[in-house]
Write a structure and sequence with these properties.
The chain is of the alpha+beta class and 139 residues long. It contains 6 helices and 5 strands. It comes from Tenacibaculum tangerinum.
Length: 139
């Protein structure tokens, strides 16, 4: 295992993003359609937050067993904006940050994804799943 390997080797480069003006219904559709759990939120191409699928679950009745469960979720989602639900105090890393450094950050924090930002521009996202795949490749 190389100790100085940059996170750019394992990060997702084609990042799916949301705008702060998007709604939570749109966010849920993206989470489900793309099978992802974290979406960076941009305001005029600058990262301002991160929305996780867990954030949506906290405010929704996603576990409801109602027949019209999607209608219940839509009503709840319309009560909040992305800006109200997203994490705002983000920790970011650059594409040259080592995988080891990223692993250290993620093990000490309570989140599972980091935006990768170079010169103020979002260039990728790295998740705990990316780290696990990288580790598995080493064996």
């Amino acid at each position: 295992m190389k100790k100085r390997t940059p996170v750019s080797v394992i990060m997702t480069k084609d990042v799916i993003t949301l705008s702060s003006t998007d709604d939570l219904v749109t966010a849920e559709r993206l989470f489900k359609r793309e099978n992802i759990r974290h979406i960076p939120v941009l305001i005029e191409n600058e990262i301002k937050g991160m929305l996780s699928y867990t954030d949506l679950l906290r405010i929704s009745f996603a576990d409801a067993i109602y027949e019209d469960e999607s209608d219940v979720d839509t009503v709840v989602y319309n009560m909040f904006t992305i800006n109200q639900v997203m994490a705002k105090n983000l920790t970011t890393v650059s594409s040259t940050t080592t995988i080891k450094e990223v692993a250290e950050i993620l093990t000490k924090k309570e989140f599972h994804a980091l935006p990768v930002v170079d010169n103020g521009e979002l260039v990728g996202i790295v998740t705990t799943t990316d780290l696990i795949y990288y580790l598995l490749e080493q064996f």
